Amino acid sequence: STYTAPQQQTVQKKLTAAQRKQQQQAAAATGSAAYPGVRTDGLSGLGLEEEAAMIQTETREQDKYLDEISRGLDQLKFGAQRMHEELRGQEQQADRIGQDAVVLHDKLRSVNREGFKRI
User: Fold this and answer.
1) What is the mean pLDDT of each run of 10 residues along the chain (119 residues)?
2) pLDDT at 2
3) DSSP state string for 6-39
4) First to last CA, the chain
5) 66 vs 17: CA distance, rounded Å
6) Stretch (H or E) spanning 49
7) Cα 79 versus chain centre, distance
8) Cα 40–Cα 41–Cα 46 angle in degrees, nearest 5
């Protein structure tokens, strides 16, 4: 018997780390050895159980790395948002300082004019 790929493939949406973990827990609860999202049942049907197990193991490892990348990106996003907020606050402070400098410049010019008139 030869393996034929399924005729109709379902489009899977990207899962969050929490959703993947929930799928893993559900699979573990039912005693399913297959990793969610990776189908190796065709390999098992051809007597390639060892290869199927290796694919499942590698997929779990890759998923761990993707979870780490996801956490890192979340941290970067949080840091970028904090930096944005800080820069917005500093921009407002710089605008106020600029406005104060204009007012002081005008006052100094007025004082200088008055001072030279008295001399």
Assistant:
1) 50 68 64 60 79 88 94 96 96 95 92 78
2) 53
3) -SSPPPPPPPPHHHHHHHHHHHHHHT--SPTT--
4) 111
5) 9
6) helix 49-118
7) 11
8) 100
